[in-house]
Amino acid sequence: MSIPWNSVSDAVERVFGLHLREGRLPDLKRALKGAAAELGHADSSACAQLLLSGKLDAASSEVLASHLTIGETYFFRDSDAFAALSTRILPELIAARRRAGELRLRIWSAACCTGEETYSIAILLNQLLPDIADWQVTLLGTDVNPRFLRKAAEGVYGQWSFRNVPEDVRERYFLRLACGRYALLPAIRRMATFAAMNLVDESTQASVRHDVFDLILCRNVLMYFTPAQATRVVATLRRALHEDGWLAVAPCEASQSLFHRFQPAHCNGAIFYRKGRPQPRLSVAGPGHAAPTPSATVARLPLPRPAAPAPRRPAAPVALATKNPQAAASAQALAARARELADQRRMGEALGWCDRWIEAAKLDPDAHYLRGMILAETGDVSAACAAFERSLFIAPDGVMARLTLAGLERGRGREGRAALLYRNILATLEALPPDATIEYAEGVTARQLAALVRDLLQGEQA
């Protein structure tokens, strides 16, 4: 039986809020195959028919969710982010609440997976609040996968959840069980509550209360949504934040176009967003410009917008194409128009102007990079990969081009190729000063990006 994969992808997006199209179809197929085996079906077609029928029962929905979602997390994941939380963000919030005479904190860990992030915050609060018994602490963890939530509520973890965690933290806040696993102390476990939530469900979005949370962590989940879905989710999160509230996302999800209504803050090497007055939206994909939010086929990394003062590559690309000042000016005008149209999400027109830019400046790596981003956004993964390869042929030090290409290759099942690209990126980044900014990476440093790539590479090798 031929499976209409586009329709199945639509159903997954509608039911679970997960965007598994084009380059991520192999992930969808693997998930349905695993779910079929668990449900006792001969092959994935029965699961596909269940999704298409719209008649999923609770048990089938739970099995499908468990195979479609990823449970890769651990305590205090992203040391930079937790350093910022422990030294700046939480202390500032605590001090502000003390001044106001309101001893309360409300924190939401959206897409909490199996609870490690939520409990990491609980441990930090236990360390930062000597009078924690006098405080009203709301610590909510939500996820679309009921199995993850049951494990989170249980609060029992294996060794893999403690990588990069100091031994004294494990000894102080966990009890070792006879089976070799570790159980959270009841006082820490009781600090958190868990609930099922689909972030992209419209009724869920409408039900989220306004101006409630002091801190929301929504990390490593926006990458699975379409740009439209991610925009709506971010708007919901912003409404849910208190007027001085903070939003934490993964470095790979940071995007000025997505968070233009927030005030960005660099804290201890991590990027956070604070609710505040809307910031002006920048234009797209070139020096001094912001970029369009990528589709789910693109590795969730900041798009083509260089950090200032990021050094340019030694050669001036337009000058390589022609020494004629008028021709150079024409290429720059074509580039500006291509970026403007991409910023407006008029991708078909943007691609046409980008091609004209390439005709005028064939050796400009930025032109091929923008072309790759546009093609990836429209779902033409093969052509996008070719465009990034051309950009890298001209400028082999293009970290973001290589990183986005690695994400695309990973998405279409070429794990070996993706792993090689990640290793090459790491070699480039490790040769740079840790605080060096990376072109097109929205202020993300070499150290931050290297940490992200190590995580991605670890996922490839797991």
**What separation lies between the terminal Cα atoms?**
33 Å
SSE series: HHHHHEHEHEHEEHEHEHEEEHHHHHHHH
Count of individual helical segments? 19
Q: Indicate the low-confidence ranges by residue numbers.
A: 278-323
Shape: globular
**β-strand amount:** 5-15%
Mean pLDDT: 80
Q: Name the CATH homologous superfamily of the largest domain.
A: Vaccinia Virus protein VP39
Domain module tally:
3
- CA radius of gyration is 23 Å
CATH hierarchy: architecture of the largest domain: 3-Layer(aba) Sandwich
DSSP, total strands: 10
Main sheet: strands, sense, barrel: 7 strands, mixed
The fold-level CATH name of the largest domain is Rossmann fold
Q: How does the helix and strand content classify structurally?
A: alpha/beta
* Residues in helices, as a percent range: 40-55%
Task: Please report the first level of CATH classification, the CATH class of the largest domain.
Answer: Alpha Beta
List keywords for this structure.
3 domains, 7-stranded mixed beta sheet, Serine Threonine Protein Phosphatase 5, Tetratricopeptide repeat, 462 residues, alpha/beta, 12% strand, Rossmann fold
